DNA sequence: TTGTACGCGTTATCAG
DNA sequence: CTGATAACGCGTACAA
């Protein structure tokens, strides 16, 4: 029961009859300290079980070793992989990662941003909540030179770094693929229009139809707020009970796409002969559903790593105020749910 | 460009011509401060955009508002839901959550524990790495009265709080169910024996066989380190190419179970007639595979919430040194992959 | 009810 | 190469 208060650099300094500054410097291999002193100090530190108090250091330096992350729901394959990437990269650089979920609610996002700001994170990675249309809660970071990097669900209203995929061309590719497989009545199960990822995928879909001179029909386009399994079923039910049902559906996420397949199979509809189904994200379920789901790869881990790198880089060069957008390549993954030939 | 350094209680004190301590107290509704003063202070704080510096407070109080989490891989359904539960509960109490992944490596776990310790977290939630068999890296927390709560993958070697499910009875139920469905040669796809969750599930399996007077055959028990999709295929291949192959397989996770079904289907084996397959975890894929996978529910979010509560509670009553084990109920989810009648 | 003064552990600056 | 000192922002014993 010796160190109720923990070992500090003062304790080490006392033991070695040197000053605390020397100890402080020695511990970080400062160039002005002799090799021997460094060895001495580290030996004693080791012996006494010294652990640096990063709180104190943070107070002094006015910056922590934490980077914050705000995402919608952590328990989604894309998101958890994204975080995995962030965490790996941050860890490598000696940073910790603080997670908070917005649950797709604007109010939560604002509250989380505030809590993270108060805890003096030295960088923030955000994937926007579905609801969010106002971005003032990020200005406190920007004003104080704390880097903010947006991932996947981003906004153009703020001038900051972004890591995204090319949603437009992905939507285009996916739709074109359905056309090439003989799709004539291609439906779209889409998400809310004010979130870039869905808007751009839809634009890609529309462009592909136009380029191939396929008439765009409003009734083949559905916007759903959640795009979860239940809504997937409802969407399938809606489309497949039309007088002139689609012969192909492009769902902008895999969750809904899988539900669509399950519903269609239940109705005795043959996939892909009667109905081709295309998803988005390459979630694990896309390989489990029978027939396997064609989808678009979404490099979650890579995106996480890049976002973390952006934050760390910005942290290095505080003065340079340029904003980068990194756009990653995606791949069309053609599987049984669309292969007709 | 006024507050390069941010607004502090001193600024507020100056503006109101009172002392910093008054401001400090007013901001936390200290009983000794007059209502009016409190209102004044808060108004000015609001106006100036004051944000408390929790670093400084942490240094003073020697505790942060962060709780740490060490898990194997964040991008697994069970784990990400677990974290979701922890995060929700912690957030509600004004705490942030710091995540770090061990990737099932002992060395990583030790490094993470150290990093979290250095960052002065005020509590730790751990689900042990597969490799871990030595627990010294947690003693620094315990020695310093920082609560450590183990979840799911726990150890008996440390006297601390635990949140678990009853793996033994779950394994027993699952196996018994397979027996009731006519299984006579029931195989087990298990994980490493030194991790409680797998060991206990196996014990449940063995007990069920004994209770029903079914001979235990070594060749029907396989231990795999990873239990991922690939190993699932290998396990299936192994079992199904035996001279006398099993007519039922209990896999201790869903990932491997799903692969087993996929492999078997590819071999023209009928599920569940020729082979009943039982999983564990109730991952999303269990509802996507055809036939749907019978499995055991694993209340991940609930476990996360409870673990967070334990940490927070221990933080309240620092002196009380008792260790609780919370054991949650699980449910057998019978689906098409085992229903034979 | 309010103010004074010190300390939490570290690090930057300046001096030697 | 090493030491003394101040400061980071807040909380609290003690004093008034």
Task: Describe the structure in brief.
Two copies of one chain form a homodimer. Helix content of chain A is 42%, strand content 14%.
Fraction of residues in H or I helices of chain A: 40-55%
Counting DSSP E segments of at least 2 residues, the number of strands of chain A comes to 12
Task: Please compute the radius of gyration of chain A using only Cα atoms.
Answer: 26 Å
- Quaternary organization: homodimer
Descriptive account of the structure:
Two copies of one chain form a homodimer. Chain A is of the alpha/beta class and about 350 residues long. The first copy, chain A, folds into three domains: about 10-50, no CATH class; about 60-165 and about 300-330, 3-Layer(aba) Sandwich (Rossmann fold), CATH 3.40.50.2300; about 165-300, Response regulator (Rossmann fold). Helices cover about 40% and strands about 15% of the residues of chain A. The first copy, chain A, contains twelve helices and twelve strands. Chain A has helices at about 10-15, 20-25, 35-50, 55-60, 75-90, 105-120, 140-145, 165-180, 195-210, 230-240, 255-265, 300-315, and strands at about 65-70, 95-100, 125, 150, 160-165, 185-190, 220-225, 250, 275-280, 295, 325-330, 330-335. In chain A, the strands form three sheets. Chain A has a six-stranded parallel beta sheet with strand order 2-1-3-4-5-11, with helices on both faces. In chain A, strands 7-6-8-9 form a four-stranded parallel beta sheet, sandwiched between helices. In chain A, helix 1 crosses helix 2 (about 20-25), helix 5 (about 75-90) packs parallel to helix 12 and helix 10 packs across helix 11. Strand 2 (about 95-100) of chain A pairs antiparallel with strand 2 (about 95-100) of chain B. Chain A binds a DNA duplex (16 and 16 nucleotides) through helix 2 and helix 4.
